[in-house]
Write a structure and sequence with these properties.
By secondary structure, this protein is α/β, with parallel strands linked by helices. The protein has three domains: 3-59, 5' to 3' exonuclease, C-terminal subdomain (DNA polymerase, domain 1); 102-285, Rossmann fold (3-Layer(aba) Sandwich), CATH 3.40.50; 295-363, Orthogonal Bundle (Arc Repressor Mutant, subunit A), CATH 1.10.10. The chain has 17 helices and twelve strands. The strands form two sheets. The protein has a nine-stranded mixed beta sheet with strand order 1-2-6-5-4-3-7-8-9, sandwiched between helices. It has a three-stranded antiparallel beta sheet with strand order 10-12-11. The longest helix has 16 residues, at 124-139. The chain is globular, with a radius of gyration of 21 Å.
Length: 366
């Protein structure tokens, strides 16, 4: 059994996230060895009780073969954090998924992603706003991430597709139980212009407990999160909580004070989320105060610098062909990390700098 096959098998257990997996790997060394271990040895690992140990021990090769056959049937690639194609943004969160089932393609440019979420029972105002924000942000090269749920999520995906942009849909079920079923055609369109992604095995049904788990992936893939409409106990607010825990920017669209679906967004604004009324508000928060054209339309010569705003220019001067750490840049510029991250994003979108592993940056243009 390969390492990839072992990780897919462990993901099928269901109760093993990246935290428990890390403890298991510290104890056994390799995922293949975890599957060979007896129950009495497995329960010596912190967080692995007898129930989980029994599930691991009962896994059979036939279970894996069946899963791989189903993945092939649905045209899925399965990524683990070992893969170069595994999204960098997601890899950096506290508990990244052990495996991602992907229909479509995740590209390096999807690092520049913005999540858009909101109520399933959205108003016309919410639906039209989600579509408009998604369309305008997609036109500025952002990949739009959402959950393909009814309401705001669907509007965000459709707005992105209208703009010819890229979008990622994170689902709370396996691909054999795509939910909601009326979005099957939309899922096919998304797969052609981005990817539909799940961390759940192919035959996992859309259980209620899956969706909060799914929400951390939406925010984890994104640099920031826009909440368009949300009721008091909306799943969109859970996604916003994850975004804050993960150090992402949170934006909220204000709504009528007597509207149930605006309660959550208005409350987020009171708590410090950035109030937005246009896509430009989001672009400015990331230091993108000038328009960024779609990558496919960019015809810049390699040695030609686009105009930079003052703070970007100051930051660019501090970056050379030698890697420099983000904390060092923050110290020299005396800017807060969220602000400097936005400026660095702007320079990356202009293809002036590159990010290396460990939050180090170098120039990519002379």
């Amino acid at each position: 059994m390969t390492r990839l096959e072992a990780l897919i098998s462990l993901n099928m257990v269901g109760d093993i996230g990246s935290i428990r997996l890390k403890r298991l790997l510290e104890f056994f060394g390799k995922p293949e060895e975890i599957l060979k271990a007896p129950v009495e040895k497995l329960i010596n690992v912190s967080g692995i009780g007898r129930e989980i140990a029994n599930k691991i021990h009962s896994l059979k090769k036939e279970d894996l073969d069946r899963e791989l056959k189903l993945a092939k049937k649905f045209g899925l690639k399965i990524l683990t954090p070992d893969d170069a194609a595994y999204p960098e943004n997601l890899k950096s969160i506290y508990d990244p998924p052990i495996a991602l089932y992907v229909k479509g393609q995740i590209l390096p440019q999807d690092k520049f992603s913005l999540g858009i979420v909101g109520s399933r029972r959205a108003s016309y105002y919410g639906l039209s706003s989600a579509e408009k924000f998604a369309r305008e942000l997609a036109e500025k090269s952002f990949t739009i991430v959402s959950g393909m749920a009814r309401g705001i999520d669907t509007a965000a995906h459709k707005g992105t597709l209208m703009a010819g942009g890229r979008t990622l849909a994170i689902i709370g079920s396996g691909f054999n139980y795509l939910y909601p079923p009326e979005n099957r055609e939309l899922a096919e369109e998304i797969a052609k212009n981005g990817a539909v992604i799940s961390e759940f095995p192919v035959n996992m049904q859309p259980l209620p407990q899956n969706f909060p788990q799914r929400n951390r992936v939406i925010s984890g893939l994104s640099l920031g999160l826009l909440v368009v409409e949300a009721a008091q106990n909306s799943g969109a607010l859970i996604t916003a909580d994850f975004a804050l825990e993960q150090g992402r920017e949170v934006f909220a669209l204000p709504g009528k004070v007597d509207s149930n679906t605006s309660f959550g967004t208005n409350e987020l604004i009171k708590q410090g989320a950035k109030l937005v009324s246009s896509a430009q508000d989001i672009l400015e928060e990331f230091g993108l105060s000038v328009s960024v054209r779609k990558e496919s339309r960019e015809k810049k010569e390699n040695n030609l610098k686009p105009d930079l705003v003052n703070q970007e220019s100051d930051l660019y001067r501090l970056i050379s062909k030698e890697p420099v750490f983000i904390d060092e840049l923050a110290e020299k510029t005396r800017l807060a990390i969220p602000q400097i991250t936005g400026l660095l994003l702007g320079l990356q979108l202009k293809k002036l700098i590159k990010q290396l592993p460990g939050k180090h940056y170098i120039r990519s243009v002379a």
